[in-house]
Amino acid sequence: MLGKLSAGWARIELGAAAILAVAITILILLNVVTRSLGAALFWTDELAIYAMVWMTFLGASAAVHHGSAVAVTIVTDALSPGLRKIAVRLVDLIVLGFALMMIWFCWQWFAPDMLLRSGFDIGAFQSETFKFIYSEPTTTLGIRKVWVWIVVWLFSAGATLHAVANLSRPADRVNVEAS
């Protein structure tokens, strides 16, 4: 069940990342054309950057599910299959710890509990916390940065889901083949 949920979420992440990759290409091409015509659209640069940030976070989370993140395997390749299984589980635990820490960092950064206590009054929240994430606009798009950085929550939740799913797999199903 958890594995299917993780696989489904990874498909959504990869689908969204693919759409964002196409959007980045279109935005950069649009930028090149409009600049060459002398009518630059400056917001395309910023939107392409934010699309790349979203694509990267979503792709990184899906990579946790697929176990396809960049890895240095010089140590694990030299281990026996039994020790390799232990090493793989240790890596899964470290990834889970990282993902949980990211959730904690997001909680500290976004402070949803304090926003709730302020009655969702952004001004009161800012004066109490000196955090401006909910009102600070992006440079050229003019949208609130909270909408850009919400992807960090999505990454943290997705990576946690994938790490827990990886840990829930039976030990004999862990891939221990040397690359």
TrEMBL record:
Keywords: Cell inner membrane, Cell membrane, Membrane, Transmembrane, Transmembrane helix, Transport
TM annotation in the entry: 12-33, 53-75, 87-110, 146-165
Membrane topology (UniProt): Multi-pass membrane protein
Keyword Cell inner membrane appears in the UniProt entry: yes
InterPro entries: DctQ, TRAP_DctQ
Subcellular location: Cell inner membrane
Domain Tripartite ATP-independent periplasmic transporters DctQ component residue range list: 24-170
Signal peptide: none
Subunit structure, as described in the record: The complex comprises the extracytoplasmic solute receptor protein and the two transmembrane proteins.
Protein family membership: Belongs to the TRAP transporter small permease family.
UniProt function note: Part of the tripartite ATP-independent periplasmic (TRAP) transport system.
Entry protein name: TRAP transporter small permease protein
Source organism: Paracoccus stylophorae
